[in-house]
Specification:
The chain is an alpha+beta fold. The chain has one domain: Alpha-Beta Plaits (2-Layer Sandwich), CATH 3.30.70. It is 21% helix and 28% strand. The chain has a 4-stranded antiparallel beta sheet, covered by helices on one side. The radius of gyration is 13 Å and the shape is globular. The termini are close together. 23% of the residues are buried.
């Protein structure tokens, strides 16, 4: 199962930091997201792209996880030569993560 089957994402940026909100479509799937989508797993998923720490914040009342990816944007919008210097595509890339289907 791909992450996009149970969640959607929104991404933002500030300097060289990307912020990805991962939101369960169904609140009942939040526990599954919290168990399977760890900061370490996100860091591994973005190996070669994210050079700094990945922090995870839990928002159970919203059925969401928020990931802060440091060193994710090649120095930031004004310094990066990346095609997506804002990191908007990182949200979509996260949704391509394969998850073990517990059903």
């Amino acid at each position: 199962m791909l992450l996009r089957e149970i969640a959607h994402a929104r991404a933002g940026d500030k300097g060289d930091v990307s912020n990805i909100a991962l939101i369960a479509y169904n609140p009942a799937d939040y526990a599954l997201l919290a168990r399977l989508v760890t900061a370490q797993r996100v860091k591994q998923h973005f190996a070669g792209i994210v050079t700094g720490a990945v922090l995870r914040y839990e928002l159970p009342a919203l059925g969401a996880l928020n990931f802060v990816l440091h060193g994710a944007l090649g120095g930031g919008v004004t310094r990066s030569l990346a095609l997506d210097a804002h990191g908007k595509s990182l949200g979509s890339a996260l949704l391509a993560m394969a998850l073990e289907d517990p059903r």
